[in-house]
Amino acid sequence: MPPHFTISPASAPAGSEVVIAAPPALCNPAYGAQAEIELENTDATGERILHTTAPMKDDGEFSYRYTIDAKAAPGVAQVVAYPHELDWCDDTGENNRLKGQSEIQRTSCVITTRELLVEDARTDTSQ
After folding, report:
1. Residues 6 or more apart from 49 whose CB is under 8 A from it?
2. Which end of the chain is more exposed for a tag (fewer CB within 10 A), N or C?
């Protein structure tokens, strides 16, 4: 399964720094020593403002800090994070990677999405 992740802060203006992070999984996902998390962020217009990979621990824990693109449209942005190039969804309930199977079939799964509110930098919230 994709790691359960959070975004902090959940609301920030373009040009601000945010952290996407997940704690260790409660199960044994065994992602491997070279595991990576794939991260994507689209702004409120659907424009991709982030697409990268970052290190992920064997247990699914990761933390990635980045700056929201200054050109990001204000509004509700979407963030997804999923294990990079791994079969993270298996409808048999078994971990195919641990069994050493060479033929892995992907199944249809819902990718976990989190919202990030990109604030309008022109809005004065100090009042």
Report:
1. 41, 42, 43, 68, 69, 71, 72, 77
2. C
Q: Which two tokens stand for residue 21?
A: 């992070």
Count of CB atoms situated within 10 Å of the CB of 51: 11
**Do residues 111 and 82 touch, judged by C-beta distance below 8 A?**
yes
Q: Mind listing the pLDDT tens digit for each residue in 112-122?
A: 789 999 998 76
Partners of 14 in the β-ladder? none
Token digits for 98? 């641990």
Mean pLDDT of 8-19: 96
pLDDT at 54 over 70: yes
